[in-house]
């Protein structure tokens, strides 16, 4: 009986040391990982302020500005305020959507635009191009227009 107890204790000790060694190795390995380079980190997401030129089918253009936040929310500033979301779809591609509010000269909201875009971030992360559409709705939800658009944007 005593030899059985000694073997059990020895087995437990060896197993405990082995598990401790594996756990220690994992901690050491995690501690030795290299940080992501700043260039790669910047290219991995479009987080920040952007200045856009949106082009419509008739060739007319509209300047715009928006922000992509780290929590994957989007804030559109101009021409009309709006909020939405964005998400990465690959290492350099992302999609975003927001609802832009359109006001008349008296400050009354007269319609809104559902903006949907598919974008490609440049290699250096300082610009992107996008395509998609804006669907214009009356306040009662009636569709007033659907415009296909292209966008060129620079960070800033």
Briefly, what is this?
The chain has 156 residues and is an alpha+beta fold.
Describe the overall structure:
By secondary structure, the chain is α+β, with helices and mostly antiparallel strands. The chain has two domains: 1-33; 41-155, Lipocalin, CATH 2.40.128. 23% of the residues lie in helices and 50% in strands. It has two helices and eight strands. Strands 1-2-3-4-5-6-7-8 form an eight-stranded antiparallel barrel. A hairpin with a 3-residue loop joins strand 3 (73-78) and strand 4 (82-88). 16% of the residues are buried. Mean pLDDT is 81; it is low at 1-43.
- Estimate the global geometry from the Cα principal axes: globular
Which fold name is given in CATH as the topology of the largest domain? Lipocalin
Number of domains: 2
Order of helices and strands: HHEEEEEEEE
The strands making up the biggest β-sheet line up spatially as 1-2-3-4-5-6-7-8
Share of helical residues:
10-25%
What's the helix and strand layout?
Elements lengths: L1 H30 L6 H6 L4 E8 L5 E8 L4 E6 L3 E7 L4 E11 L5 E13 L5 E12 L4 E13 L1
Labels describing this entry:
Lipocalin; 23% helix; 156 residues; disordered N terminus; 2 domains; eight-stranded antiparallel barrel; alpha+beta
